[in-house]
Amino acid sequence: MDKPCTWMRAKCRICERSARPDHLFLSDTGQVPGTPRLPDDANGNVPGAADADKSVEPAAARGLSVTDVAGRVGVAAATLRAWERRYGLGPSGRTTGGHRRYSMADVAALQRLQRLTHAGMPVASAALLALEPASQDNLPVVGERHGSDRLARRFAAAVDMLDADRIARTADAVLSERGAASGWTEVFVPQLQALGKRWEATGQGVEREHLAVSVLQAALVRHTRKNTRRHPQPGTRVLAAATPTELHTLPLDALAAALAEAGIVTYVLGSLPKTALHTAVADTSPAVVALWARSRQSTDLALLRGLLTRAPVVCAAGLGWRGPSLPRSVPHLPDLRTAVDAVLAWSS
After folding, report:
1. Domain end call among 97, 131, 165
2. Global pTM?
3. What is the model's pLDDT at position 231?
4. How many domains is the chain built from?
5. CB distance 23 to 15 below 8 Å
């Protein structure tokens, strides 16, 4: 897929490490995003560094001091220390004596933070984006339909302030103006992924992610109900469920919200054991069953195959199904837009 944001492209390494199932939006790679490494070639020893540091640990003595970086970025040294403490935008190295040493990648991240704040983005939101790998092509442009546009900035600011009412109002505005599919891929997922990366890089912000997910789920449900009332005689019915070991089911609410805009009713049932899922299919008689798995570890091929004789169309939703060899009759829906387009095609 071309787009960086699908259902949940992220592998939840925090969950595996800390058994916290709500950290949904981290990167696939083993490297912590935005955590730069000192270059192999020397940038020159920092003036004033202790001779003992240079001889005992030359790699840590390379780089720029806090004072040097403050001058390059154009802020006070105290501001740099505050950004490190609050947002994890600190140096990637230290001397043996404990002095901070910034690599050029560290400086580039701080300069990106400055550019974003000068463009009008709140510091906390800019810091999340500054932790992304440095690429000028990926820098957000204020005013474009991009993750940093007006609504995305409002959403990020509301989350940063832990303002549930404001998060809800902004989420409602995003869904109303963009629709569920565009709002999900262009605003919500990028912001939530950034929160997960911040948690991984700094150990901070989990309370903001939990609140954002909770309020966003309620907003998606409201959007679904509002559009369902506009279509009192629904046509195609979809049953959306997750495998028994899949704890992350927010994308199913996004699917229901997007399909409701087209008058399609979706029963979102979350994670279900085999018997309960079979009972739900028998009782609702859906035209389509979407079985969701975010990671390969949560897929269940036996459960998927057992549904083939119980519904006209059974599909495997989510990136977790990329690895297993799916039955030929089972389409794979890796992202929300693909899922919506496929269901609309089947319903017609």
Report:
1. 131
2. 0.63
3. 67
4. 2
5. yes
| Ranges of the chain with pLDDT below 50 | 1-6, 8-61, 134-148
Q: Please give the pLDDT value at position 166.
A: 92
Range list of H helices, 96-163: 104-118, 123-130, 150-160
Domain at 115, CATH number: 1.10.1660.10
- CA proximity to 197, closest of 135, 266, 116, 131: 131
- Specify if 250 maps to a domain: yes
Looking at 131, 152, 174, the residue that finishes a domain is 131
289 within domain boundaries: yes
Work out whether strand 93-94 and strand 100-101 pair parallel, antiparallel, or are unpaired: antiparallel
pLDDT above 90: percentage of residues in the chain = 41
Strand order in the sheet with 332-333: 265-271, 237-242, 288-292, 313-317, 332-333
Under 8 Å between Cβ of 212 and 23: no
What is the enclosing helix (H) or strand (E) of 174? helix 164-178
Of 196, 304, 303, the C-alpha closest to 250 is 196
- What CATH number is attached to the domain comprising 335? 3.40.50.280
Give residue 232's pLDDT: 58
* CB-based contacts of 184, cutoff 8 Å, min separation 6: 5, 251, 254, 257, 258, 336
Name the nearest CA neighbour of 156 among 181, 123, 133. 123
285 within domain boundaries:
yes
Q: Is residue 334 part of a domain?
A: yes
Domain range enclosing 109 = 34-131
Tokens of 222: 């409201």
Q: What is the pLDDT of residues 87-102, one digit of tens each?
A: 888 888 888 888 888 8
